[in-house]
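Task: complex structure prediction.
Instruction: return structure tokens for all chains below.
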Amino acid sequence: MAREAAHRERPDVAGGRLTSAEYAENFGDVHPLLARKAALVEANRCYFCHDAPCLEACPTGIDIPGFIKAIATENVDGAALKILDANIFGGACARVCPTEVLCEGVCVREAQEGRPIQIGALQRYATDHLFAKANGHPFARAPRTGKRVAVVGGGPAGLACAHRLAVLGHDAVVFEAKPRLGGLNEYGVAEYKVADHFARAEVEFILGIGGIQPFTNMALGRDISLAALRREFGAVFLGMGLAGVNALTCEGEELAGVHDAVQYIARLRQATDFAALPVGRRIVVIGGGNTAIDIAVQTKRLGAEDVTMVYRRGPEAMGATHHEQEFAQTNGVKIKHWARPRRLLGRDGHVREAEFEYTRLDAGRLVGTGEVFALAADMVFKAIGQVFVTDPLRENGKELLELVNGRIKVDAERKTSLKRVWAGGDCTGTGEDLTVRAVEDGKRAAHAIDRALRG
Amino acid sequence: MADLVANFVGIKSPNPFWLASAPPTDKAYNVVRAFKAGWGGVVWKTLGEAGPPIVNTTSRYGATTYRGQRVSGFTNIELITDRPLEVNLREIKEVKRDWPDRALVVSLMVPCEEESWKRILADVEETGADGVELNFGCPHGMSERGMGSAVGQVPDYVEMVTRWCKQATRMPVIVKLTPNVTNILGPARAAARGGADGVSLINTLNSIISVNLDEMAPEPIVDGKGTHGGYCGPAVKPIAMHMVAEIARDPECRKLAISGIGGIETWRDAAEYMALGAGTVQVCTAAMHFGFRIVEDMVDGLGRWMGEKSYARLGDFRGKAVANLTDWQFLNLNYQIVAAIDQSLCIKCGLCHIACEDTAHQAIAAKRVNGERRYEVIDQECVGCNLCLHVCPVENCITMKRVDDGGPPLDWTQHPNNPMRRAAE
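Output:
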């Protein structure tokens, strides 16, 4: 009791809660690479479907039965090239795709026996196999066109676009606001999903095609302008992602110890020493998406004692898949549904408690029940969604291009309302905010740009 | 519980599961372990003449891995026993003495001279063994020296040696046949003419099981080179069963008992061989893959199945499928079936469609109904070939339904398209 009382005196936020071996274990690969034998067994489970549902479910249209057949025949490089030809981020997607709601979710083996082919794991097996060889870049560039395209954003959408443009013979200049390329793979995804600096190795691999000139620490609206890019380049691709986060808009949001999950994860991903990251003993995470899961699990893995996620609706409404929710729970994260934040309470300027009100649906509308509860908290993370920041696309108070639902409006070819400007990834509203969708956007836009430049 | 006792050419064994003449039966140590595990009998690995022992290569086996399934086929280049004759004879005598209720048959292979056979038969008789099996089957090594399949491929030799043996011994004589012939009835009838009590088949098939693409040599590799081996294991079962059945339905072979060999791994395999006329079955590859304990389920499973079918003894179903084996010309051409897909079981893999579309009769349509895949049989295009049923990964999803009018049967001998047809009666 005395100890407990002491805790209440000061918030317990500290680094170095674990041994270095524990950090290494907690932030190492969450799903290790399949061994050769295991990959062969799994590949041979695949029925090699005609008109395969998995292929249709993949936003980048990877020939999944084809690459799995190639693994089964031990033509692993051939398998990797099939994947990368459709999706140059095949390595990252193998790690971060919510396969349970995409390819694996529709696998006929899932329908038959509830055990889909481990498509993600096989994809990683094939791509890692290729990456482990130092044979240079596997794709050749078409004869140079001399055309230059500006790509804003060095994440999956931008780099997928730049790579495909390079393949098609054009030169791409990539402007990235952050110090490193890679986007969310480098800054946003949980460490254990892309362990051992995989995102950096993948970026190196992609740039290996040649013809892509990256500039980092170059932000649109600060260091460059859309007008200038349109003047200087044959075409512009916008893939700058979501730079803003939603605010809680409740009392106490300004207290110390209240963090934006996205920023904290970015810091964690750039950390060279996990022990140096201060983490609370008791954590409250507000939100129900993948970012909420990622911050909850990663703080738990940094040594937090109690981590509670609070989401205002039921489990089926969460942005995180069922698989992700289960993963959080097996990591010791407690998930509370049907409650929304009322206020954050602090002492001496630091958060100590998060107060919630139970919710329910009333004729389809979310309402508070009036009943409240409080959770002790040394740290509170906001993970209630990211938003597209339109400022760089405004001039004299007017949007330069058309938006829809606060994001850039594009057509099927990812063309914006503005001449010679295409866009893709999270900054557009073409679908789910997924790496794999961003890659497809970039790829499609590259082909459309190619047609326009040659037109 | 059904009675599994087998009486094969007068040799009794508590069950019909024997180990074939092969490495698992090379010495007392293995055979005793097999008997402890429950095997009904063994055919002791082939003995040769007294004299300098056989020399074997190192690297002796190769195997087929089919889609991850190991040892779906197996090959060997091993010769007959490489232990001294007197050691084998002594051990055979001891084992038979200690295990009187089990079948102990001795496999033999000596040069094609009457004296050689007489000499070794006398030696074996002295051990108290239950019978002999003449190895006319080994396709590698020994055949280059005029033995094994070199004898088995010449019916006159088979008949001659069988006759010598029957004249020289009171023991039952089983002739082991090589499948490396164009018609198994040639050597089988020769064995019958020579007075054999039974035949056992098949011995192994000539084969090159794999080529090592790095060393550019057939496997198994002996110092850079390979030779053809004898193929066996689950992959050869259909070939072996056909040969067994051909003998079972041949009037000239009526008196021959048959010991079935080739890819037997389960009680079901054994039951199939016995339904085609085999009195016992012999196993090797499955034991070499999993050890002797596999016999437990063979005995248990066969007994349970016989119980379910109300077969009290092996004889109650032995040969029961032979009557239903006929020539193609006698099959009823009026019998018509078509495929039926149970949509509630279909998992939408599309394999039935693509198989039929690309390689058969374009009788399964690939549709989308409200975006959902749906595969439908086009009855009038379906020829009832069963291809879709076999490629479908879901049990009972595709079945064949009878669509003819149940009229009288019509076979090729009566068919109007047959210019040689018999006149209608």
